[in-house]
Design brief:
Layout lengths: L9 H12 L5 H8 L3 H13 L19 E9 L7 H10 L3 E6 L6 E7 L2 H12 L5 E8 L15 H4 L7
Antiparallel strand pairs: 1-3, 1-4, 2-3
Helix pairs in contact: 1-2, 2-3
Pfam families: AsnC_trans_reg (PF01037), HTH_AsnC-type (PF13404)
Keywords: DNA-binding, Transcription, Transcription regulation
Organism: Nostocoides japonicum T1-X7
Length: 170
């Protein structure tokens, strides 16, 4: 796990939430949302980029409207000889445009993928031609996604103002 070297405060969180909502928002809107000056917003955004908190700004594409109407969660078991080599699997998953998310797991299954497809033939081809040909895969279990929520990008921590309970003493 990566531990951040930068401290994130409420102003940083406000800027990050605004950017998640609209990565093309002008600095005036970002500074207004965070209740800081434009200069402060510029400086904070630069610090967040330099520290790696903001990895990149990108478009959030609705996969269903872009022709990827079938989503699947794919659970993978690795052979015992290949299990420790997550890096070799990670490189392969990075090369597969269908894979939106991949993770190495501890537990009953070794890896999980969230992948998107145009149709069932696309999914079948992916399993047969991409996953089954990966050395070290011992088992594949596919679960079709029927509905999804929430529809947002990566989560941010809750605001400490919203997360704290008020102590009511009469």
């Amino acid at each position: 796990m990566v531990e951040p070297d930068v401290q994130i405060d409420e102003i940083d969180l406000a800027l990050l939430r605004s950017l998640q909502a609209d990565a093309r928002a002008p600095i005036s809107a970002l500074s207004r949302d965070a209740s800081v000056s434009r200069a402060n917003a510029y400086a904070r955004l630069a610090r967040l980029r330099e520290s790696g908190v903001i990895a990149r700004l990108s478009a959030c594409v609705n996969p269903y409207l872009a022709g990827l109407s079938l989503a699947a969660v794919i659970l993978l078991r690795a052979t015992t000889d290949a299990w420790p080599r997550w890096s070799s699997f990670a490189e392969a998953f990075d090369e597969m445009p269908e894979v939106e998310f991949a993770a190495d797991l501890a537990g009953e299954v070794d890896m999980i993928l969230l992948a998107r497809f145009s149709d069932m033939d696309h999914l079948r081809s992916f399993i047969e031609n991409d996953l089954r040909r990966l050395p070290g895969i011992a088992g594949i279990r596919t679960l079709l996604v029927l509905n999804e929520t929430p529809k947002r990008s990566w989560l941010l921590p809750r605001s400490s103002r919203r997360g704290k309970r008020r102590d009511r003493r009469d």
